[in-house]
Structures are given as C-alpha cells and as structure tokens.
C-alpha cells in the first residue's frame, strides 16, 4: 500500500531546500517553501510554487519553529514534509507531529531518530546487531568509574556526549589524572549544549579515516547500500571535502563495510535514506554514528551511482518498494565535492556579507549545488556554506585535475571564502596520493601558502 | 544592505510587490509607480550610476522619498504632510488563519474606528486547531482592517493599520 504525495513542504533553506524543490519538480510534485524574514529574497522562496514566512531571522523562531511550520503546511494543504539536513531533520518529535497531522514525513520513523540520536543507545543497538564498535562504556556515573574503564581500555580515550554527534561535545584524554575533572566539565558543557549531560567513553583512535556507507531502505524490510564516501578531510570535526569511492578501501574491506551497514539497517527495521559513519583504523572499521537523513555530501554518491537520492527518498516515503534499486551497485568513476563556505580560509571565522560578483564553473562532469546569486546577502543567522562544487571523472587522478580546474574558474567576490583553502588542498601530496587521515588538514595547513591562493580582489 | 524594505514598506501584500519587482527587472525599468485609491507603490532603481541594479521597495507615501528627487539640505524641515510615516501596523506573530471574531455567531472583536486598550483582543489566528488570541500591546484606534475574515496569514503579515494613542 502506498500513500500518495502531491505537495511537499520543505522545512529548510539554502542549497538543500533548492535540491529538494528540484527533485519535486522533476517528480511533478507541488512545493511549499518556508522562510524567515532574513531569507525573504532567497532562491528557495522564489523557486517553490508557494512560500510562507514563518518567523524572524533567528532559527529558533523560524526554521526550528515546529508550530509555525506545521501551520504553514496546513494552510497550503501540503501532504508531505521534507526536513532536509540540519534544523529539524533529526528531531524525532517533529517527525511524530508531522505524522500525527496526517502528513508523510520524508525520512525514517521517529523511533529510528531516537535510537540513533542517543549515541550510547546507538552503540548498544549496533553492538547487539553484530556491528563492530570501539571498546567503550555506557553512560558514566562517576570519575572513578571513568578511570576504571579507561584503565581497562587503555589510554588515550575519548569522552563523548551521548546527545552529541557530528563531532560536537568530545574530549580526548591522554592523562589519567585529568580524567575525573575533564569528565565533570564535559558533563556541564554537554548539558548546556544539548540539554543532556550524559557522557560516555571510547578508545581513541590516533590516526583514523572517516568513511561512511550510504544506505537506502524501503518500508518492507529491504535495504541496500550505495557504496561509501570518504570524508576524512576535516577541520574542527567538520567535513571540508568528500569523495567517493574511498581510495583506502580494498575490495574485501569495502564489501565487508557495506554489508555491515546493510545488516545494521535491517536490524533496526530502518527505512528511507541513512548513513552509517565508520572509523577506519588500518584495515579495521568501527561504528561511529548513524545519520537518519540526507547528507550534505550525498551528491558524490549520486555521481558515481547515477541515482537521484532525494527523488528516491520521496518515492520510498510513499511506501513503494526498492524495486529497481534492489541490486548490487558498482562505482562508476570517481566524484569529489568541495564545500565552499563564507569564512576565512585559514582561521575558519565566518564571514557574512553581500556577494558583489559571482561566476560558477561549468563544463564536462561538473555540478554546482548552490543558492547564491549576485547581490545575495549571506546572513549571519545560518550555516556558512555557500556552494558545493562537485566533479565526476572516470578515475581519481582525473577527478582531482577536474576539481583544480573548477576551483580556478570559481569566482565569488564581496566576501571571504575558503576557495583558497581548497585550491591549496588539491595540490597537497598527501591528498593526491590518497594517504591522509582526519587530522591531515589541520596538521599540515600552511597559512601563507593558502592565502597566496586567493585571487586579487577587485 | 543598510535598509530593510520591511521597515518602511507600508503595504499589506508582499507577493504583489514581488510580482511588481519582477516586471521592474524584466523590462529594466528605472521607476514604476502604481496607485489604486488608498495605496500607492513606488519602485525606484536606487543607484543607477553604480549599475548594481538593486530594486528598492519604497514605503507607501503621498510624496517622493526624501533625499531622492530633491537634494534638499538635511537640515531642511520635514514636510508638514509627514503623518504617513507615523502609520503603525499590527502584524501577525503566528502563521495560521485570521479570524475577526471568536465564532461565526459573535461580532468582530474590533471595527474600523474602534478604540482599543492595551491587552484588548483584536483577532484570532488559528493554527492546528489552536486559537491564538492576539491582544493589543498598546492603546490605539483601528484605522483599517487589512485582511478579510478567514484569510491565511504568514508571519509578519500586516493585520491592522492603527493610530497609537
């Protein structure tokens, strides 16, 4: 049995709102944009069939305002809601309210978000499903318990917030004496940041790679993987560049990792799109966390599989089976994505402002997902991401050459961006050879060389 | 941008302005002015010389925006017909459906000419079966009701034009 979808409300902004509107339009679905007063002139407002203002610039009163978003859906007669990523995308209560109001939530069930949003519960669930996890603990109740656990596991260890994720709320412990006091501070910080002070501990991997597997599952218990993405180029635990496939995986390791992700998805009865993030330590991998939504970097998977993930996500939300997707997928070529942010290329400080001139690259094998236009004002209220530059080529060396070409063509004037960082990065031997870990970028950054990559601003 | 069009845009329907702005841009106009009884819209290319082609939505006024048509010295006294800039609007803090009364049988909370006290109910904005009563935050006289009963409203939609007391 399937539920029909005719009109989709997109509870998001920026490039992902555009991405969803584009998918809907091609599927013949009507779209409703919601926007804050700061986004009055945004492209998602213009490209949607209808647009409703839901609040002032602060996210808490607009894009996170469940009541206003539901009212907008009700007013426009939307029968489905797409949450995008960020904002309400992983809030179980939002999915629940959408469903209670008789609309289709384009994503998994609230229970999947609850299990995976609680990192301790997620660890335990995965361990039960036979997925490798790093040696670690449940929620820590005292400094003494933490010390005992750390002695058993061996230093260094890492303290993580149960309500954290995405690299937030973590502390590395190398000195046992520091553990009890660090735990206390971390608990306070986690409580302030996430409203929950629960912390747990895991073995710390010194030189890991971040490799994740894309899962697609239907509401009938079927799940497949769409290969992996390599996301080790990071700064402050935020991804900077992603590629697919991962050059560090042997065919055997890739098969094992992807099969593990499928097993894990089936074990929790998951449906919709999902990503299993793994830490790769040599030839061993460990479950890190699961993201129950479309990811920023979904595009690289789309390029090497030829599958429109957002359209499939909408189709699966109606209850249709995997059907044509239900097969083994092989990578076709190599894809790289660079996240272009409005920030200082060296200090990463956000740099809002107005775009005075804009030229996006083009040509064979190039894709640009962006909400920018000349005259667009980057608001300090939201995420600093401006554009995703994506290239596709038959192999990794050619994809790298194509990305260098693309970065040299890209012009964004009026504000500071991290384009120079990407230009520099694509020249580094460690990157080109594919031998890098999650610390590579921050450990080897050369501020002068990066700044030298900036083109003279008019 | 230093000026938010919303601050001095005294028009009830943003969508209308948006459509106008599209026409404005499409035909590369320098100025467009439309009048219908009590409303008047003036769109003017703000800075032709710089070539930025930015479109400004000017407030509903009975005269040209100060400092544009006539480069009068800043110290010149403001024209006597300034009251328009004193227009005050009550806007919707909710997204929902606008109702002028608490039920179809009861009279409207306020009419044009009504004097309302602080805390007095003005209308209802219904969302998800919840009836949010909107109260006056200051004493005022209702000069215009800008929406029909049972019309959908978005956040910031202008509901009443009022005169503060």
Task: Describe the fold and architecture.
The complex is a heterodimer of chains A (458) and B (165). Chain A is an alpha+beta fold and 458 residues long. In chain A, 34% of the residues lie in helices and 26% in strands. Chain A is built from 16 helices and 20 strands. In chain A, the strands form five sheets. Chain A has an eight-stranded antiparallel sheet with strand order 13-12-9-10-11-14-19-17, with helices on both faces. A five-stranded parallel sheet of chain A has the order 3-2-1-4-5. A three-stranded antiparallel sheet of chain A has the order 7-6-8. In chain A, a hairpin with a 2-residue loop joins strand 12 (272-281) and strand 13. In chain A, helix 4 packs antiparallel against helix 5 and helix 7 (143-153) packs across helix 8. In chain B, the strands form three sheets. Chain B has a four-stranded antiparallel sheet with strand order 4-11-9-6, with no helix packed on it. Chain B has helices spanning 5-8, 14-26, and strands at residues 31-36, 39-45, 55-58, 88-91, 96-99, 115-116, 121-127, 130-135, 140-145, 151-153, 158-164. Chains A and B meet through strand 3 and helix 3 of A and loops of B.
Essential attributes:
A: 458 residues, 8-stranded antiparallel β-sheet, 5-stranded parallel β-sheet, 16 helices, 20 strands, B: 165 residues, 4-stranded antiparallel β-sheet
Question: In summary, what is this structure?
Answer:
The complex is a heterodimer of chains A (458) and B (165). With 458 residues, chain A is α+β, with helices and mostly antiparallel strands. Chain A has helices at 14-27, 43-47, 66-76, 92-100, 110-117, 119-128, 143-153, 179-194, 251-267, 298-305, 309-317, 396-409, 419-425, 429-433, 440-444, 447-452, and strands at 7-10, 30-36, 50-55, 80-82, 104-105, 157-165, 168-173, 199-203, 209-217, 223-235, 238-244, 272-281, 284-291, 334-341, 353-354, 357-359, 366-370, 377-378, 385-393, 411-413.
């Amino acid at each position: 049995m399937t539920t029909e979808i005719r009109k989709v409300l997109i509870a998001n902004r920026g490039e992902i709102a555009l991405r969803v509107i584009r998918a809907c339009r091609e599927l013949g679905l009507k779209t409703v944009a919601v926007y804050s007063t700061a986004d009055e002139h945004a492209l998602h407002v213009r490209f949607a069939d209808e647009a409703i203002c839901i609040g002032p610039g602060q996210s808490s009163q607009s894009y996170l305002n469940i009541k206003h978003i539901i009212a907008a859906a009700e007013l426009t007669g939307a029968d489905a809601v797409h949450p995008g990523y960020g904002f309400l995308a992983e809030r179980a209560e939002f999915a629940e309210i959408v469903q209670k109001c008789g609309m289709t939530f384009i994503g998994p069930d609230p229970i999947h978000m609850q299990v995976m949003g609680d990192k301790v519960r997620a660890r335990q669930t995965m361990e039960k499903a036979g997925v490798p996890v790093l040696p670690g603990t449940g929620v820590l109740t005292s400094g003494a318990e933490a010390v005992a656990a750390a002695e058993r596991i061996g230093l260094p260890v890492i303290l993580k917030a149960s309500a954290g994720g995405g690299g937030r709320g973590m502390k590395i412990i190398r000195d046992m004496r520091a553990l009890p006091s660090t735990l206390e501070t971390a608990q306070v910080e986690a409580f302030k940041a996430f409203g929950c002070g629960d912390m747990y501990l895991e073995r710390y991997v010194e030189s890991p790679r971040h490799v994740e597997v894309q899962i697609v599952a239907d509401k009938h218990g079927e799940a497949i993987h769409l290969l992996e993405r390599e996301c080790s180029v990071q700064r402050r635990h935020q991804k900077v560049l992603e590629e697919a496939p991962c050059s560090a995986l042997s065919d055997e390791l890739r098969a094992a990792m992807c099969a593990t992700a499928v097993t894990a998805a089936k074990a929790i009865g998951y449906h919709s799109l999902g990503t299993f993030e793994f830490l790769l330590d040599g030839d061993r991998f460990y479950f890190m966390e699961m993201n129950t939504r479309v990811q920023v970097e979904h595009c690289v998977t789309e390029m090497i599989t030829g599958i429109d993930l957002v359209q499939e996500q909408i189709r699966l939300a109606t209850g249709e089976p995997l059907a044509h997707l239900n097969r083994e997928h092989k990578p076709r070529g190599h894809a790289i994505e660079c996240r272009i942010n409005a920030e200082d290329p060296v200090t990463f400080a956000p740099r809002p402002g107005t775009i005075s001139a804009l030229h996006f690259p083009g040509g064979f094998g190039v894709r640009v997902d962006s909400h920018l236009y000349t005259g667009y004002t980057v608001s300090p209220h939201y995420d600093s991401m401006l554009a995703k530059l994506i290239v596709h080529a038959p192999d990794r060396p050619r994809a790298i050459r194509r990305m260098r070409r693309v970065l040299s063509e890209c012009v964004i004037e009026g504000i500071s961006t991290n384009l120079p960082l990407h230009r520099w990065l694509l020249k580094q031997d460690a990157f080109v050879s594919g031998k890098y870990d999650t610390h590579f970028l921050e450990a080897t950054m050369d501020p002068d060389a990066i700044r030298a990559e900036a083109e003279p601003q008019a | 941008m230093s000026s938010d069009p919303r601050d001095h845009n005294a028009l009830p329907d943003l969508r209308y302005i948006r459509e106008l702005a599209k026409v404005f841009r499409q035909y590369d106009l320098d100025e467009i002015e439309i009048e219908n009884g009590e409303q008047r819209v003036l769109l003017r290319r703000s800075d032709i010389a710089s070539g930025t082609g930015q479109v400004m939505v000017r407030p509903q006024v009975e005269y040209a925006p100060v400092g544009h048509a006539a480069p009068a010295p800043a110290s010149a006294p403001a024209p006597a017909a300034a009251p328009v800039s004193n227009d005050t609007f009550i806007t919707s803090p909710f997204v929902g459906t606008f109702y002028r009364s608490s039920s179809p049988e009861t009279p409207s909370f306020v009419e044009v000419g009504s004097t309302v006290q602080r805390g007095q109910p003005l209308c209802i904005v219904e969302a998800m079966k919840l009836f949010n009563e909107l109260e006056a935050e200051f004493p005022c006289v209702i000069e215009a009701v800008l929406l029909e009963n049972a019309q959908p409203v978005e956040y910031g939609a202008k509901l009443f034009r009022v005169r503060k007391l």
